[in-house]
Write a structure and sequence with these properties.
This protein is mainly alpha-helical and 104 residues long. The chain folds into two domains: 65 residues, no CATH class; 38 residues, no CATH class. Strands 1-2 form a two-stranded antiparallel sheet.
Amino acid sequence: MTYFGTNAVPSIFILRKNKLLARLNSTNDIQILISLIESTLHLNQTNNVTIEYEDRIGPVTTIFEPSFDYALLFSWLFVGLFIYYYAEKYNLLTIIRQRFSHEN
């Protein structure tokens, strides 16, 4: 398990009390997942598992729907207000103007 950075492989982690019990890097074959769960958690498969076409589609929509990102807008507004506040508090704009006017 990576503690810093990202894991680029689709992985399944089975954790117990914040300890890693098992890790699966291959998510294409359902039989591998079933055998991992059976061996790790000592659970037995009750019925045969069949994967339909609808199972592979998933709950996430695959059609792009353009929308406005309000969180990005508010984060940029926060950064702008933060910069403006400290520029006014420490008179940074006048200090910058004075330094550039003395160099010329």
